[in-house]
Specification:
By secondary structure, this protein is of the alpha/beta class. It has two domains: 218 residues, Spore Coat Polysaccharide Biosynthesis Protein SpsA, Chain A (Alpha-Beta Complex), CATH 3.90.550.10; 103 residues, no CATH class. It is built from eleven helices and 13 strands. Helix 1 runs parallel beside helix 2 and helix 7 crosses helix 10. The longest helix has 25 residues. It is globular.
Length: 338
């Protein structure tokens, strides 16, 4: 029987996380209207066997490849029937009422395409978690930040961001998305592989007239870096490359012509800071390689730009979080001039 919600945990060699966090998902996910699914990206650590032996009620989808976050979810979701998909990282602990509170809000407003809960740090449970905190935004030049996290400054959760509000992007660590909106927008862009593909998806859904919201009454705890640890060179490469792809695909042409050169310059500054100040050659090389590969993708990116309808001029915040954070010392979301 088709259920209203498909909670899909995408895994790749994450048996240790499944052992630790599946119990909370099973306990706090109402299985009368939710189907729990583990979609496996060709793991070799016994993840599938663990789920088969210990959770026979969980549906398993074995992807024939490791297509990363984007390809893995596209492969798995195409095989499922539901009104809502929940894209849930394997390193998240959920809490009572986590899914019902979000879906209640989305049921009440069909213009909401996607939503996220409040993400708190699994190890420092009174602090927001880097990957999504209490809802995400990007500034005029594509830098991502959150209510509760600006660059590496992470705030304590004192209830200051507990209201349901529209945001620019909802975190891919725990993304609740309306199924028809997901496919209407074209799904996740598999060229991203991992990182910032959820921002790209949320941008495209907003171009179609949908809203993205955060529902902080729903709370989950995130370890973070479950597949690619923070500071990993591959993560650095993907973040820099994908951010340029994100801007090139989605910015209106007039804005792209002056914002992209500024962003490229700022990336060059970051690369030379890594090389000359931090003495980190691997980060420098990762940023350079990200730029080279971005330019190699120009032909396909041009095609993708043409396929995105209604690119709007007013979606991005008209402010520079880099200037405010580093020059004006405004280092929390509430201190930013937005």
């Amino acid at each position: 029987m088709t259920k209203k919600i498909a909670v899909v945990i995408l895994g790749w060699n994450g048996k240790k996380f499944l052992e630790q966090f599946l119990p909370s998902v099973v306990q706090h996910t109402p299985q009368d209207y939710c189907e729990i699914v583990v979609a496996d990206n060709a793991s070799t650590d016994g993840s599938v066997e663990f789920v088969q032996e210990n959770y026979p009620q969980i549906t398993i989808i074995q992807n024939g490849r490791n297509g990363g976050y984007a390809g893995g979810y596209n492969d798995a979701l195409a095989k499922l029937k539901a009104d809502y998909y929940v894209l849930l990282n394997q390193d998240i602990e959920v809490t009572e009422g986590w899914i019902a509170r979000i879906v209640d809000v989305m049921d009440g407003d069909r213009t909401i395409a996607a939503a996220q809960p409040k993400l708190l740090d699994y190890f420092k449970r009174n602090k927001f978690e880097y990957a999504g905190a209490s809802g995400g935004f990007i500034d005029a030049f594509g830098y991502a930040f959150c209510r509760g996290r600006v660059f590496d400054t992470i705030e304590e959760d004192n209830g200051q961001y507990d209201d349901v509000v529209p945001v620019f992007w909802a975190t891919g660590a725990c993304l609740v998305v309306r199924a028809d909106a997901y496919w209407q927008a074209g799904g996740l862009d598999e060229d991203f592989f991992a990182h910032q593909e959820e921002i790209d998806l949320c941008w495209r859904m907003q171009n179609l007239g949908y809203k993205i919201v955060v529902v902080p009454g729903s709370v989950v705890y995130h370890v973070g870096g479950g597949s690619l640890p923070y500071g990993n060179t591959r993560k650095t490469y993907l973040n820099f490359r994908n951010n340029l792809m994100l801007l090139f695909k989605n910015l209106p042409f007039g804005e792209l012509m002056w914002k992209l050169p500024i962003r490229l310059f700022l990336d060059i500054v970051a690369a030379h800071q890594a090389l000359l100040i931090e003495k980190n050659m691997t980060t420098f090389k990762a940023i350079v390689r990200a730029h080279v590969d971005f330019f190699k993708q120009f032909p396909s990116l041009l095609v993708k730009r043409k396929l995105i309808p209604n690119k709007r001029k007013n979606l991005l915040l008209r402010m520079s979080v880099v200037k405010q954070y580093f020059l004006d010392a405004r280092q929390t979301y509430s201190a930013l001039h937005r």
